[in-house]
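Justification of computing resources. Each target in the renewal requires a structure prediction run like the one illustrated here; the chain below, 322 residues long, is used simply to show the kind of job we budget for.
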Amino acid sequence: MTLHTVPPTNRNPVCFLLATISGIAIPLFFMVSGFLLIKKNGDWSYSKQKILNIFKFSLFLTIPIAIINRIFLPIDWLDINAWLTDLIGPFLQKSNLLWVLWYLGAMCLIYLLLPAIHNLHKKFGSKFLILATISFATICNVCFSLNITIGFEQRIIQTFRIQNWILYFLIGATVHAFLPKIRESFYRPSKSHSLYIVIPIASAILYSFFLKYVSYPHGAEVEYNFGSAMCMAYSLATFICLLLYKPGVFISKWIKRLSRLFLPAFVLHIFVIYAVNKIIPETVLELEEYTYLIKLITVWTGTLSLSYLIMKVPVGKWIFRI
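Resulting structure tokens:
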């Protein structure tokens, strides 16, 4: 929500910090997937079912919007290409409102690769995960270098920047494989509990400085930095600290409540941003430095409230489930 609400070009330093550090959301999505899926029996039947579930969920969103477009816009009801663009286009960022579904398109590609990853992991164990992660980290660093020289990934839609998504998937899987050793080596409740908060914050600030002074001067915006070593370090440090951190009862309760809202919030926040933009035009936001923070709070509260109400309805729980 923050990444899509606050532009990093805003001259306010707080807005720039929020916009740049929130880019970690995308790597974390894939790291969580790798962490959870590596321990499942990821055969072809499992991957096929997950891909079908993604398509089913997507169609529940795209079909009503496609019909509304044909009612209010001059679109031919019999135009097959237009239907394909409306129904499949969001996976390829070809949608005004549902372009965020590119993430699910990328996850379909991950699910296609999952059986091979599982077979190689079973055959070679953690050595495969380490070697594959290092290999993809190298490839991603080369792509990042090309981003700040010739704008390499600007020619590729998010869905097909697959080297980045495989990398973070593998990082999550590798962390899962070594989690017992990580906990044994680093978890010290009495001494280092506060470090699990301090380290991600420090990493976030360092990453923001990296973007401001190394990447942005070359025109490589947040989405073109996922292949950088700095983003990998920031994502990995944050992910491990979140795994090691042991929250109290109050925080655990809120994490459980908010986690149920992830998928509806992921989809609906674009609609909320669209509505807020109609109320507060972009021209007004650019005149006042702190107006973006007001917009951000409005998007947060609006999205979470709407998601909560939808998930209270049985049909909402059924639709927003993959």
